[in-house]
Amino acid sequence: MDLLNTLVDKGLRREVPTRDEALAVLATSDDELLDVVAAAGKVRRTWFGRRVKLNYLVNLKSGLCPEDCSYCSQRLGSKAEILKYTWLKPDDASKAAAAGVAGGAKRVCLVASGRGPTDKDVDRVSETIATIKEQNEGVEVCACLGLLNDGQAERLRAAGADAYNHNLNTSEATYGDICTTHDFSDRVETVQQAQAAGMSACSGLIAGMGETDADLVDVVFALRELDPDSVPVNFLIPFEGTPLAKEWNLTPQRCLRILAMVRFVCPDVEVRLAGGREVHLRSMQPLALHLVNSIFLGDYLTSEGQAGKDDLAMIADAGFEVEGTDTTTLPAHRRDTADATEPADAAAPADTDAESATVPAPSEETRRDLVAVRRRGAGTDLPPNA
Ligand code: SF4
């Protein structure tokens, strides 16, 4: 298939595909799926070998957010019956983080609900970062606290945060459909503040919110332009009690096509399989390891993932290996120098049929029973899943 040969060649040269090529990946048929996975897998192996980086989420503060992101179970007015609690104490957060590290995670992601931190919150999180680093040697810490004000990124960096996560989530054109309390440019600005403060930027997307193929390509190209070091790809978990509860749009095959497209557009970046993998990829999860080089271990912020030991068994069974703390995730050219990749071809015309096509609903039965609200780990008396 000419398209796939072209995309592999470009991926190995770190060259950006055209928008039409990215759209064409999303439009491939199920008969072509294994060829697509094999092609994107070649790019993945070139830059990351067979390594899988494990990341572990600690929800520092859960629920009761004043923002209205419609995909989120913690949003304003959410009726989802999730755990709700205020800031974890540094020791409790560190204990949760230690469970993830013991399970093989090399990065801990400290997340708090809310529009953004107050200066007092930054103090609190700084103390938590110090405690975690003291008690877990060599661990990378990523903070995810929402929109940042001036000076907060620098303070988090000085406190030891290695990375900052803030997702773009969807295309700029449709951002207003999923959130009205902040906009796309706010999110871009926070990612840029994190980068300017010297933190590794982590920014990704959520697929399955009713977006078009063009939206998906737009957000991935916007991410390439922003140039984060890691790109988490979430698949919407349609929580009951949120506005997107009825958005069951994804099939395992579509998830794999989306991941392949992200890999082709961001060939040498840590592409991380994030929330929703158990719900939407189901038994096809191992194939996704050929596309991504990073996953979350165990549970998510407000929902439960598969058992941590099953994640590890899946990685081993699929012929991959957990990345150790002695290995640097990113290829040398991304670590050592300002990125030498070419700018995203964001100005390419957007006029194909696939561009405007909406995603057909999946024909097979959806598996709503796989959505399990988190009832263990941080904020509970039960041990965490790692
Ligand atoms: S700001 Fe964060 S926690 Fe709040 S509703 Fe949006 S995604 Fe959820």
How would you characterize this protein structure?
This protein starts with a helix and ends in a 30-residue tail after the last helix. The model is unreliable at 337-360 (pLDDT under 50). Strands 1, 2, 3, 4, 5, 6, 7, 8, 9 and 10 form a 10-stranded parallel beta sheet that branches. It has helices at 2-13, 19-26, 33-48, 90-102, 119-135, 152-158, 175-178, 184-196, 213-226, 252-265, 277-281, 285-288, 308-317, 332-336, 353-356; strands at residues 51-61, 107-112, 140-144, 163-165, 200-202, 205-207, 230-235, 270-273, 294-296, 321-322. The chain has one domain: Aldolase class I (TIM Barrel, Alpha-Beta Barrel). The protein is built from 15 helices and 10 strands. By secondary structure, the chain is an alpha/beta fold. The protein is globular. The site of iron/sulfur cluster has 9 residues, from loops.
Observed structural traits:
386 residues; 10-stranded parallel β-sheet
> What is the CATH class designation?
Alpha Beta
CATH-defined topology: TIM Barrel
Low-confidence stretches: 337-360
What count of helical segments does DSSP give?
15
Query: Which ligands does the model contain, each kind named once?
Result: iron/sulfur cluster
CATH structural architecture? Alpha-Beta Barrel
- Biggest sheet, open or closed, and with what strands and sense? 10 strands, parallel
* Helix/sheet category: alpha/beta
Q: Portion of residues in helices?
A: 25-40%
The structural domain count equals: 1
N-to-C SSE string, H for helix and E for strand: HHHEHEHEHEHHEEHEHEHHEHEHH
Overall 3D form? globular
